[in-house]
Amino acid sequence: MAEISPSILSADYLKIFEIIRGLEGKANSIHIDVMDNIFVPNDTFDRFNPEFISKLRESKITKNVHLMVQDHLKWCEEFAKAGADEIAFHFETGKTAEGIKLLKDHGVHAGVAIKPATPPEAIENFLDELDFVVVMSVEPGFAGQSFMPGALPKLRWLKHNFAEPFGGKVWIDGGVRKDNARQCAEAGADVLVAASAIFNSNADFLGNLKELQAEIS
Length: 217
Hints:
Blueprint: E1 3-6, H1 16-23, E2 29-35, H2 50-54, E3 62-68, H3 72-82, E4 86-90, H4 96-105, E5 109-114, E6 132-136, H5 151-166, E7 169-173, H6 181-187, E8 191-194, H7 205-216
Parallel strand pairs: 1-8, 2-3, 3-4, 4-5, 5-6, 6-7, 7-8
Helix pairs in contact: 3-4
């Protein structure tokens, strides 16, 4: 069954640790977006950095880190040492084999993310080594963007060429909302990342999460 991974990018950072505690037992993972203002035009290192991850070591929720950074080898190592459970870096930054090996050496689940313009066939040679693949359904960098339906064929391809033969998990990230969540799950997504759909102006983020979970159950 597919699941929702709340992206805390859109959460109230002043209450971030309280929010994460509230998500324990309600979601299997939280999604943590790390941006360097080089690979994408946004910077979240002031909030989401290795020190932040280290403060979550005692948390029972899985910490999934999405590195939208140019120097992914450096930050894969830093976040792995800090206690991240799962880390994805972008295929477009190169050094894919090196990044996967580094994460495996640290005992971290290894993932690769692909931008909307990147076909899944581009990472075909690495599928047997990966634990998960993140399909971006918006251009990486900012929450609140509109979902790109072109991601759905990628999910189907990865379901048949990655999830079924190798047991890997297929993630989708970007613009996931109630009106498209079921489509994503039916196309093959195992994990749907949602940010603004959960942490919107409605303060009931757990209620929003529950509604999204109901859409894909």
